[in-house]
Each structure stands twice: as structure tokens, then as C-alpha cells.
Design goal:
Layout lengths: L2 H4 L2 E6 L4 H15 L3 E8 L8 H5 L1 H22 L3 E7 L8 H14 L3 E5 L16 H14 L10 H5 L9 E5 L6 E4 L4 H9 L2 H4 L3 H16 L7 E8 L2
Parallel strand pairs: 1-2, 1-4, 2-3, 4-5
Antiparallel strand pairs: 5-7, 6-7
Helix pairs in contact: 2-8, 4-8, 5-6, 8-10
Bound molecules: zinc ion.
Length: 244
Amino acid sequence: MTSEEENKVAMVIVAHPDDAEFGSSGTSALWIKEGWDVYYVICTDASGGGDDLATTLSVGARRETTETRKREQRAAGEIIGLKDVIFLDYPDGILEPSLALRRDIVRMLRTYRPSRVICPSPDRVWEPAYYIGRHHPDHLACGQAALAAVYPASQNAWDFPELLAEGLAPHKVSEVFVVGAPVNNYSVDISATLDIKIAALRAHDSQLGSHFDEVEKWMREGAARAGEADGLPFAERFHRIENR
Ligand SMILES: [Zn+2]
């Protein structure tokens, strides 16, 4: 038995609710079908995501937005079959790749001990058709903190020694799958799970409900386009890194 078979645990680290559905939920759903335990770690508190001024300026309304978006994320997680969704509750919209965030992600890695991690790219992609949402500073910050947490901090005992005092031994992640990277080198065939991905996206009703038909069309077309690189009907593309 390989060490991977002994530890079929994956962790998806993103900034906001719905990021993981857009970027990699077809892959998560596929891995779950293959017997993996998948956890989501959402770095922010999901208090943004509205463009109504009255909502934006009201503390009570922001709290309500947080509760709604967390509920929607948990509902999406149930559709995919996640083991759990964990929120780190950093304020939405001002996420920074701080040492505090890196330490909190290391704590998650050392607690759940995933052999695979999915995270967003810390780098922008300068291509004309690139969707501007990928450039959200929270996404870039999340990617930078997550990659720094995977290597070297999670696997090195001398990084964040206070975590050793919490009983969290170093943990080495075997593979990282970066979403939205400038260079992709790996496709996952999501033909069997594209409908689950669409259903999970539909759970994010407060963000996507008003234009879901458009979102669904866009996702199906995007998955077909992503599949072209490796001759697959539908795919999610990643930059995959092996941590040897
Ligand atoms: Zn986002």
C-alpha cells in the first residue's frame, strides 16, 4: 500500500464561498467517488459579496450575508459529499498573505493531514479573455499563503513551533493542484461529475441565483474548452506540483 492510499485526504483552500465550486468542485466530487475525504478551508468570513449599498454599510446585514453564504457553502458541500467546511473567518475583501494566515492554514494541514491540496494561484494570468474575478486580491493572497503553508511550513518542525505545543506534528503534502495558474500541466476528467458541480454551484443562490442559467452555460462551455488540451469531453485544469 502506498502512503497515498493510506491517506486519501484532500483539502481545498480558497478565499470565499463558491470559489471552490467554480474552480475545482468537479475534481473534488470525483475524488470523493474514488473514496477520498475532502475538506474545504475558506479563509474569509464571507461578509462581502453584495453590491447593495445599504447592506454593505450595515453591520447587521453583513452578519446576515455571512450566515447566508456559509449556509450556502455547507449546502454545496453536502451536494459534493465533503467531510467538512471550515471557515478561518478573516474579514472578506482585505485578506493578506500574512504569517497569521499561513499559520492558520498550517494548523489545518497538520490537523487533517491531506496528501492532496487544491488552492488558487498567487499569480495573475495576463491573457485577454481572462475572467477578472480571478484577479481578486483575496484569491491571490489565499494562493500565496496556502503555498507557503504547504511548503515549507507544514512539513518543517521549526516553522511555527507553537503548533508543536498544540500537539500538531509536521505534515508533508504530496501533491498540490493550483487553480488559475499562468501555466497548467494537468487535466482532471470531470465528465462524471460536471452535473454535481453545477448542482453545487446552484446552492450559492444569493450570489448566482439571479443569473444561474448564464453561469451554467458558462461552466459547461468552460469545462469543454478545458478538456480540449488533453482530448477530454469536460475537464478542470490545474498546475500540478509533486512535493517529492
Ligand atoms: Zn472569490
